[in-house]
Amino acid sequence: MTELPRRLTQPSPGQATARGWTGGFLAETPLQQPPHYGMLATSKYPLPLAIDYAETRRSQVDEILDILAARRGGQSVRILLLARGRDNWWPSPRRPRQGTAVMSTGTSVDISPADALDGTSTERALADAKHAFTDRIHELRHAGLGDEWATFPLSPDTSTARPLPLDTEPTGDAIISLDMAALSDVLASFNDDFARHDNPVDVLLAHEMSYWRRIVEARGQFFDEQLMRTMVAVQAVTGAEEQRNAKNAVAAGFDFHHHGFPDTAPHDARLLAAYEHILTTAYPSGNGSHWGAMDPDLLTAALLAEVEDTSDQQFVEQLLPHPHLDQEQQHHGLTVLARSAPTQPTLATSAARAVAAAPEKLLPPRSQDRHRRTRSRSRPLVAARPARRNHRAGTTAGRRSGRLRLGRRYGQHLPHLP
Questions:
Q1: Strands 47-51, 77-81: parallel, antiparallel or unpaired by DSSP?
Q2: Which of 16, 34, 102, 275 is the most buried (most CB within 10 A)?
Q3: What values do phi and psi take at 50, rounded to 5?
Q4: What is the rounded distance in angstroms from the CA atom of residue 98 to the CA atom of residue 359?
Q5: pLDDT for residue 57
Q6: pLDDT tens sequence across 109-128
Q7: Mind listing the pLDDT tens digit for each residue in 316-327?
């Protein structure tokens, strides 16, 4: 996303005096009153707009398209919608605008993740990524951001890179998988604790754990590894536009972490405040909201799946409808889980169970009606839910069968959020 504006803002050869494109980033939670993005209609420079995960930002996409459709004159605007699939959402915004100035033909381009590796080998791409991470880490160290880089090798030996695990071969999220594998290998080259892990995701989570530990202990708190995993997972699921949302998310996280124990006393307010500060420090926001979340999505999905599995498949089902969370945080959680589903399909199953248990809390009113009609034609949910034993040790076919039954009934509600 940063490379596109960087290239467009560079003057073309032989056009040094031509007016260049303007690049930047829109806040996901803008401060202006509606219309939030009205300033886009009055741009004085050619403007490219790239909207990632467009299928989960329907209200924002609709608002931007409507604003640009109503503008008269001005500089060129080009819109690039990046989405994981198009058949389930693209016809709706395209059909009423097709043939207009804002949509024209609405050209769609299908891109395979493997296309990014066209003309180069996986080994070459991995080696290039390792050198790029090495250079960036050196820049951080020279800028005074030492972190753990004091013993970092000047040039890691890319010829001895560990083979990519099967689930990181470049068949799905090719580039992000390769980058994660490259970074994990660089990190493991100077930290024996990281080198114990074979899977790149485990290496990166171990590095995050080291990062969390430093922040927690700097805040004067005892580092509880399992609690911190849970709290970062809560942060990723709930989001927080304002501090009150963050406080409510932290309280919900502590409620879940201690569920099953008797409520002998209220939570320590100072401890809750400390963790709100810890999470905000660990993952600050870059879009105007109160805090951000761990990136990339593949790593977040792996952490969520780990917390869900450790909780005996209770984390998602108990957190999403928690009374401390407002509806926007609940919808944010469903969006995060929908993004995680391609690599961690059990999370979609867990989200479907949460929706089935509390549709009045988790679905918009129109979706609630659709859900009730669907459920009235379905067998009881308990009949389709795989037993815990089968989830862990059952065959792949058995687990997939359970997921598909749930997905047909409730999964269709997850991506269609306001």
A1: parallel
A2: 275
A3: -115, 120
A4: 35
A5: 79
A6: 887 767 777 777 888 888 88
A7: 999 999 999 999
Q: Residue 229: which residues within 8 A CB-CB, separation 6 or more? A: 209, 303, 306, 307, 310
- Find out whether 246 and 279 touch, Cβ atoms under 8 Å: yes
Place of tokens 């409808």: 321
3-state SS, one letter per residue, for the chain:
CCHHHHHHCCCCCCCCCCCCCCCCCCCCCCCCCCCCCHHHHHCCCCEEEEECCHHHCHHHHHHHHHHHHHCCCCCCEEEEECCCCCCCCCHHHHHHHCCCCCCCCCCCCCCCHHHHHCCCCHHHHHHHHHHHHHHHHHHHHHCCCCCCHHHCCCCCCHHHCCCCCHHHCCCCCHHHHHHHHHHHHHHHCCCHHHHCCCCHHHHHHHHHHHHHHHHHHHCCCCCCHHHHHHHHHHHHHHCCCCHHHHHHHHHHHHHHHCCCCCCCCCCCHHHHHHHHHHHHHHCCCCCCCCCCCCCCHHHHHHHHHHHHHHCCCCHHHHHCCCCCCCHHHHHHHHHHHHHHCCCCHHHHHHHHHHHHHCHHHHCCHHHHHHHHHHHHCCCCHHHHCCCHHHHHHCCHHHHHHHHHHHHHHHHHHCCCCC
Structure tokens at 368: 């609630």
